[in-house]
Design brief:
This protein has 209 residues and is mainly alpha-helical. It is 88% helix and 0% strand. It has 7 helices and no strands.
Length: 209
């Protein structure tokens, strides 16, 4: 019964791993996290001095990049240093959201071999326990078969663990890379507003003189 429960847990872990791999493949994409049309649209709007249009583009295209941009836009009146801090904090928040999703892959990758090892240990205990009632030349054969059967749980656990940890590493590195690129892109876009503010201040000073 214990071995059956362990096998059920291993199969459930494998299905969960597959689900999180698919979820990561759908969500941790450069095109989804850093959509080019949003960057192009916001840049064109800011070049034209239309901050409202940029905000509208972000609202129409929800995602990590839009959230980081909105963090900068909502603090634009506070000065560029405050905007930079807001963008960095927003990037960290988006990173945490994504990491929370893909960390489940790491958890599955660590659970699977432990379940496999547990199945092997319980199988070995059962195998040696059954030897007490066995006798004659079939004793060694029964022991070998029992050990072989017990080891299959470890094999199954490793077959789940390796892809899970591999997918976790790939998604984590990709997400980190794209989010850092998103942060740099947002700061580059918002520099347009900073330059506009500098020009406005210069014109006001000239007008005052």
């Amino acid at each position: 019964k214990v071995n059956l429960l362990i096998w059920v847990l291993i199969f459930l872990t494998s299905f969960a791993t597959l689900a999180f791999v698919v979820d990561g493949a759908l969500n941790v994409q450069r095109g989804k996290m850093l959509p080019g049309h949003v960057v192009t649209g916001v840049r064109a709007s800011l070049d034209g001095g239309d901050l409202g249009a940029s905000i509208a583009i972000c609202e129409q295209n929800p995602g990590p990049l839009s959230n980081i941009l909105m963090a900068g836009f909502t603090n634009i009146s506070e000065g560029f240093e405050v905007v930079q801090e807001a963008v960095v904090k927003a990037t960290d928040l988006e990173s945490e959201k994504i990491m929370q999703r893909i960390t489940y892959l790491n958890l599955r990758g660590q659970m699977a071999p432990m379940l496999g090892l547990l199945g092997t240990v319980t199988g070995m205990v059962s195998a040696f326990g059954s030897l007490a009632t066995a006798s004659g030349p079939t004793k060694d054969k029964l022991l070998a078969m029992a050990i072989s059967t017990a080891l299959w749980t470890t094999v199954a656990g490793l077959l789940v663990s390796v892809p899970a940890l591999l997918a976790f590493t790939i998604y984590k590195n990709l997400a980190t890379k794209v989010l850092l690129e998103s942060e740099a892109t947002v700061l580059d876009l918002i520099k347009i507003l900073r330059n506009a503010e500098v020009e406005d201040e210069g014109e006001e000073e000239e007008a005052g003189e």
